[in-house]
Write a structure and sequence with these properties.
Elements lengths: L6 E4 L7 H9 L3 E4 L4 E3 L5 H8 L6 E4 L2 H11 L10 E4 L2 H9 L5 E2 L7 H5 L11 E7 L5 H8 L3 E11 L6 H8 L3 E5 L3 H10 L1 H8 L4 E3 L2 H9 L5 E3 L3 H15 L7
Parallel strand pairs: 1-2, 1-9, 4-5, 4-7, 5-6, 7-8, 9-10, 10-11
Antiparallel strand pairs: 3-8
């Protein structure tokens, strides 16, 4: 197997890493868990609870991430059922899995690319004049989705479901693997996560990182990686499946040569 014995860094938040880490293990790789985003609870959930009370007044609910789904529904569903008439939109297979876990199955979701642009291309979101949309997300984030839906005539509101922070992690285990020439690949699944990772590993880690194959499932992350000076950026298809396929293809064609 092309990934046998390969050490692959998984940078997803702690609660989202298991699915991909299991796939790596099954392919013979050694997943190195190093979460670069920490998902924290809200100090004040009252705005979220206010939206929960008013859910029936919306035509469409959009969840921007699995974290938004988990944190929002943990507050909403103990208090009330999800309205049968309220359509749900989400990005990616992991979000669809998380929604299904809560009994929500009829989801508007782009099939090939898991980003706001792909969601906005779907026919369901083409004509939203007069529709009331609520977007569940973390603190901050891109405004493209809301801005575009407003421009198309929708009434759009945001509700924050969680806070993001930079984890306080020791980079020593990564530095040790790099020093031994055993850290073969890094997977990076968000631009914010990439920036955090770059800062977290420090000057020495940055020097190693710039020479390590970095697998990224989106062009925006690839651009950020090149800007930071990473020399071996490998774009992949979206989601866990895209990352796995990219890793398998890359290491199948690179034989037994380790990256460092």
């Amino acid at each position: 197997m092309s990934l046998a014995g390969r050490h692959v860094v998984v940078t997803r938040p702690a609660g989202q890493a298991a699915h991909f880490a299991t796939a790596l293990t099954e392919a013979g790789a050694v997943p190195v868990l190093y979460p670069v985003l920490e998902i924290r609870e809200l100090e004040d959930v009252s705005p979220l609870l206010d939206v929960a009370i008013r859910l029936d007044s919306f035509d469409l609910a959009v969840f921007v991430s699995p974290n938004a789904i988990e944190k929002a529904l943990a507050q909403i569903l103990p208090r009330r059922p999800w309205p049968a008439a309220l359509r749900v939109a989400a990005l990616g297979k992991s979000s669809e899995r998380e929604l299904a876990r809560h009994g929500i199955h009829d989801v508007i979701s782009p099939p090939l690319r898991f980003d706001s642009e792909a969601l906005l291309e779907l026919p369901d979101l083409a004509d939203v004049r007069g529709r009331r949309v609520i977007i569940f997300r973390g603190d901050g984030g891109r405004e493209l989705l809301g801005d575009t839906l407003r421009a198309r005539g929708a009434s759009v509101g945001y509700v924050t479901c969680y806070r993001r922070a930079v984890p306080q992690l020791d980079p020593a285990p990564l530095l040790s693997l790099w020093e031994k020439g055993q850290l073969d690949a890094v997977t990076l699944t968000s631009s914010e996560g990439l920036r955090n990772f770059y800062d977290m590993v420090g000057r020495l880690g940055q020097a190693w990182l710039k020479k390590t194959p970095a697998f990224v499932p989106h062009a925006r992350i690839a651009e950020q990686a090149v800007t930071l000076g990473l020399a071996r950026v490998i774009p992949t298809g979206p989601g866990d499946d895209g990352l796995m396929a990219g890793l398998m293809q890359y290491f199948a064609s690179h034989g037994n040569a380790h990256s460092n």
